[in-house]
Amino acid sequence: MESSPSTAPPQTRDEAVPGRGSQQAISPAYVRFVGGLTSWSVAAGMQQVLFTWLILGELRESSGWLGTAQMCQMLPLLLLLLVGGAAADHLDRPRLLSRLHLAGGLGSVLLGVAVVTGRLHIGLLITWALVFGSLQAFAQPARDALLFDVAGGRDLMRAVTRATFMQFGGQALGTALAASSWLGRAAVLYIGLIATVLGYAIWGSLLRRYPAATVAPFALLIPFVATYASSLAFGERFGPLRLAGMALALLGLAVIVAPPAAGRLGRPTVPGNTG
Questions:
Q1: What dihedral do alpha carbons 117, 120, 125, 126 form, nearest 10°?
Q2: Which of 152, 180, 229, 244 has its CA at 20 to 30 Å from residue 69's CA atom?
Q3: Where are the alpha helices (DSSP H) in the chain?
């Protein structure tokens, strides 16, 4: 008995690639997650500026104390990140993140009370650095795991991209709000939103369309672009030796990229499509 031929329509290119079919509606849980992530990122961006100002501007401490305090802020990440990952695997992640965010807010309020009452000292700031770093060590893995929960298995790439945009954008906004001048705020917004968020968004889009061997060598242009931008913005001039070095770097990039890219840039690669 012969089997009847399949009447299922052939898959389109977008349907054959995970995440390129019909987009799922954004769930309310994901919206709440991104809102919490953005609020934390804005506060973290402001905290980085104000923490430095409290040590150098308010207490008039040395740069050595600033380095010590910043080390205390990063040390818990090194020591407690694995513990935070285990906690994210075994505890209720939304409740854990809510309590961590609440603890961070209460700590900031207590620090503000110390500033207002004149009881701020370097020991208190170092203690807060250790506390904030510990909160980060537990919040970061819980947040990463919760993102998968609220986004689901489908369309995870877009969910991660949106969350990353809001995270770095929130940090840039918080840093700009805490900056002392409009020029400083503009510089921070440029670094955070354009150079980082927009740059990585374009970079990720290119990696999805073209092979990594074609896209990755263009990262060698970063020093060249930065040098050229400084000459335009600040009038910086370069001698013949430095110009020759930049020309040599561009020549090497052309040798690496141009021949294989000539046949590939016109035809984006699609995973799973060998035709």
A1: -140
A2: 180
A3: 13-16, 28-53, 63-90, 93-116, 122-151, 156-178, 182-189, 199-209, 212-215, 222-234, 240-264
Q: Give the rounded distance of the alpha carbon of 246 from its chain centre.
A: 29
Q: What is the C-alpha separation between 225 and 222, in angstroms, rounded?
A: 5
Nearest to 269 by CA among 206, 209, 202: 209
Asked if 100 and 157 count as a contact pair (C-beta separation under 8 A), the reply is no
Which residues of the chain, if any, have pLDDT below 50?
1-4, 6, 8-22, 261-265, 274-275
191-200 tens-digit pLDDT = 666 777 677 7
pLDDT of residue 125: 92
| Measured distance CA(123)–CA(65) in Å, rounded | 10
pLDDT value, residue 138: 92
